[in-house]
């Protein structure tokens, strides 16, 4: 290389650097406010999401490389469902060790996300000056103020630990492609397993028990009802003063328990497989092999999850025409937003819906709260996760922004225990991969639970190439727009009825948007319902 | 130790130059004491990759209007982007990560940070580099290996 081709620039100049992160782009939430209360809301994804088009015609395994790059913060979850989509399409055999390692990878990515999301995204909003009159405000600022709070730094630092375990098995995190049809490409040693255990213990000792819970994991998990949680708070000063204790007390004081309910209907596609019961992955056999179960809760009753009942409605989305298709029939045919707006379309996000027997297509909330509500369904097998706490909480106090955040923090304790158990079960003398036959035709479905909710791929293979590939993300479920019946999506629903203390500074709306942790940079725009004048624009982490 | 991190999104054509350069260096083989990392689009994690490194080299693409394939070399301080208070976790880039790393790692922050930017030709949705950017990462890979004392390929 000739030296002169390297241009050294020392003087300041406007240079647009990239890392064009999320393919989905930004999210605008528009709300109209009347007499201090939100009366209507629209979620608008402002950028086109085109990876389905990128994948068309590619090698079937391209999804393993491409989909982990859809998101810069949950690539491992994308990899997990992409590999199961191929496993089911190719009828592979997956050795138990590989299932354990896939489970571990999926779980540690979510573990990583919990402190990072809480400190770097959610708790920042709690230090907002609007709450300065709260008795607990000074303590909240002392702990959670960005870059200065006592626990902010440890929270951000510790968030890097769980994914060190991912890197041990997956080579790297983020953007790993180590899960392949028929298993995983890692061949761990005993020291890899013991190192992983010590990293996990570091996470537990330095953050999970010491800072988050202020109690042992086991003691926290004894809580089965909202009443138990309140009793736990009063049991010891360590409980009251833990991050979880402070968060609950403060949220009740500043009103987080009073708004942001959402649709009150939930979907979990389930997560983590029993290593023996899913050796031969099929779409039909999936539900019965899940450790954390799948299901739909319609507010009254539980229903079995059936992927064939999922639809994507694009009546109000910037795609040609209207209608509601199952992802196997899914079409991604974008149109100019200016044209779309003439037809009443307002977003690039499609509207995922679930066709509930006897009811029809409904929007469903996904995410940690959805998972924990589904975990409360009676009738679990002895080896499956059964946890009635959040079913009780939504019945006792209803869903709200506090409960949604609490569900996510609760999962830190559960996921720690699972990873610890799976690490123990790895048999270093057994296989991690069984080479599959690459079938030229087939259909596959793979799904998992990313930190922020249900995530699934549908793949159709024809002549050894991808004929159709559709990804339905948790963000799509939660930020979905209205459907052809005019019914709002979950975040749109959660915004309705929210009391806004200061319309110039609608921090309440930011809390709701953040409680869903949509995978997009989110901006809330508030309008006055009568004058249609913009009252405020609120970027969710800006002060 | 020197850490080289390639940043960018493989789904946006030339924006994938950083990760593609890391693969190229991996294939060519780097000398001892050099660690490679694919930073992808996960900004915050760039900061965690650099603890205890003497030197950090970041590679990404840029858009300045120059000839596609032009390679810029900048001192890290020039492109570091504090303050961090306005940064969203979901929109966190490596220029924020340098600032985060300086705050988080303190004395463990690399003494020297160098950023290489490659002028992009095509940033549309899609997979694969344009031929000019492909040639640029080839040149940059050889330049880096030469500087780090590695074996340079005959091209």
Automatic annotation (TrEMBL), chain A:
Key words of the record:
Iron, Magnesium, Metal-binding, Nickel, Oxidoreductase
Q: Where does Fe cation bind?
A: 74, 522
Identify the residues that bind Ni(2+): 71, 74, 519
Q: Which Pfam families does its entry note?
A: NiFeSe_Hases
The record's subcellular locations are: Cell envelope
Which of this chain's residues are annotated to bind Mg(2+)?
52, 471, 525
Domain of life according to the entry: Bacteria
Cite the GO molecular-function annotations of the record.
Answer: ferredoxin hydrogenase activity; nickel cation binding
Q: Name one GO cellular component term.
A: cell envelope
Needed cofactors: Ni(2+); Fe cation
Extract the SUPFAM superfamilies matched here: HydB/Nqo4-like
Extract the InterPro entries matched here: Ni-dep_hyd_lsu, Ni-dep_hyd_lsu_Ni_BS, NiFe-Hase_large, NiFe/NiFeSe_hydrgnase_LSU
**Family, per entry:** Belongs to the [NiFe]/[NiFeSe] hydrogenase large subunit family.
- This chain's protein is named Cytochrome-c3 hydrogenase
Organism encoding this protein:
Collibacillus ludicampi
TrEMBL record, chain B:
> What top-level branch of life does the organism fall under?
Bacteria
Matches recorded under Pfam families: HycI
Q: Which UniProt keywords apply?
A: Aspartyl protease, Hydrolase, Protease
Q: Which GO terms describe its molecular function?
A: aspartic-type endopeptidase activity; enzyme activator activity
GO terms under biological process: protein processing
Describe the family membership recorded for this protein in Swiss-Prot or TrEMBL. Belongs to the peptidase A31 family.
Do you know which PANTHER family this protein is assigned to? HYDROGENASE 1 MATURATION PROTEASE, HYDROGENASE 2 MATURATION PROTEASE
Identify this protein by name: Hydrogenase maturation protease
């Amino acid at each position: 290389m000739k030296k002169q081709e390297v241009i050294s620039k020392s003087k300041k100049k406007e240079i647009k650097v990239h890392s064009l992160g999320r393919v989905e782009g930004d999210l605008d939430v528009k709300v109209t406010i009347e007499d201090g209360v939100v009366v209507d809301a629209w979620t608008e994804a402002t950028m086109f999401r085109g990876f389905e088009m990128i994948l068309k015609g590619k090698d079937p395994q391209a999804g393993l490389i491409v989909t982990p790059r859809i998101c810069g913060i949950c690539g491992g979850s994308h990899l997990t469902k992409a590999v199961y989509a191929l496993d089911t399409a190719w009828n592979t055999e997956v050795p138990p060790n590989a299932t354990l390692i896939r489970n571990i990878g999926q779980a540690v990515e979510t573990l990583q996300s919990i402190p990072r999301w809480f400190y770097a995204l959610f708790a920042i909003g709690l230090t907002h000056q609007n709450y300065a009159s709260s008795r607990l405000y000074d303590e909240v600022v002392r702990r959670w103020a960005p870059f200065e709070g006592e626990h902010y730094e440890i929270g951000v630092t510790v968030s890097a630990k769980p994914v060190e375990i991912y890197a041990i098995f997956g080579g790297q995190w983020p953007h790993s492609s180590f899960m392949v049809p028929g298993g995983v490409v890692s061949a761990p040693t005993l020291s890899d397993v013991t190192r992983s255990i010590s990293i996990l213990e570091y996470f537990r000792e330095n953050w999970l028990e010491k800072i988050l819970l202020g109690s042992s994991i086991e003691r926290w998990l004894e809580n089965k009802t909202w009443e138990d949680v309140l009793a736990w708070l009063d049991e010891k000063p360590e409980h009251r003063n833990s991050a979880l204790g402070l968060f609950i007390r403060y949220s009740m004081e500043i009103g987080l328990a009073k708004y942001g309910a959402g649709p009150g209907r939930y979907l979990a596609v389930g997560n983590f497989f029993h290593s023996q019961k899913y050796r031969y992955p099929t779409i039909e056999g999936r539900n019965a092999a899940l450790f954390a179960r799948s299901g739909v809760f319609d507010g009254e009753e539980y229903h079995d999850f059936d992927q064939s009942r999922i639809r994507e409605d694009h009546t109000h989305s910037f795609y040609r025409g209207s209608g509601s298709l199952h992802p196997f029939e899914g079409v991604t045919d974008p149109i100019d937003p200016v044209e779309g707006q003439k037809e009443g379309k307002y977003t690039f996000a499609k509207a995922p819906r679930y066709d509930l027997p006897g009811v029809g297509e409904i929007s469903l909330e996904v995410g940690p709260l959805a998972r924990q509500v589904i975990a409360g369904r009676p009738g679990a097998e002895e080896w499956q996760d059964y946890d009635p706490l959040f079913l009780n909480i939504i019945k006792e106090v209803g869903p709200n922004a506090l409960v949604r955040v609490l569900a996510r923090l609760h999962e830190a304790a559960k996921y720690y225990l699972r990873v610890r158990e799976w690490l123990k079960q790895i048999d270093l003398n057994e296989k991690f991969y069984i080479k599959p036959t690459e079938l030229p035709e087939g259909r596959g479905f793979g799904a998992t639970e990313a930190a922020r909710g249900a995530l699934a791929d549908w793949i159709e293979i024809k002549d050894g190439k991808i004929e159709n590939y559709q990804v339905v993300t948790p963000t799509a479920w939660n930020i979905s727009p209205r459907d052809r019946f005019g019914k709002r999506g979950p975040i749109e629903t959660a915004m309705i009825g929210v009391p806004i203390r200061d319309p110039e500074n609608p921090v309440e709306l930011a809390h709701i948007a953040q409680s869903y942790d949509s995978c997009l940079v989110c901006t809330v725009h508030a309008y006055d319902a009568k004058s249609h004048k913009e009252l405020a624009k609120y970027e969710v982490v800006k002060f | 130790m020197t850490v080289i991190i390639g940043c960018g999104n493989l789904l946006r054509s030339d924006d994938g130059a950083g990760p593609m350069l890391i693969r190229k260096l991996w294939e060519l083989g780097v000398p001892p004491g050099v660690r490679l990392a694919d930073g992808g689009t996960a900004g915050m994690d760039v900061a965690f990759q650099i603890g205890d490194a003497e030197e950090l080299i970041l590679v990404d693409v840029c858009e300045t209007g120059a000839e596609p394939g032009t390679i810029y070399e900048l001192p890290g301080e020039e492109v570091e982007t504090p303050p961090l208070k306005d940064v969203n976790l979901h929109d966190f880039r490596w220029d924020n990560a340098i600032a985060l790393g300086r705050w988080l790692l303190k004395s463990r922050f690399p003494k020297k940070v160098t950023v290489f930017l490659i002028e992009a030709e095509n940033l549309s949705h899609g997979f694969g580099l344009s031929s000019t950017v492909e040639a640029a990462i080839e040149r940059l890979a050889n330049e880096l290996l030469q500087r780090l004392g590695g074996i340079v390929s005959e091209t």
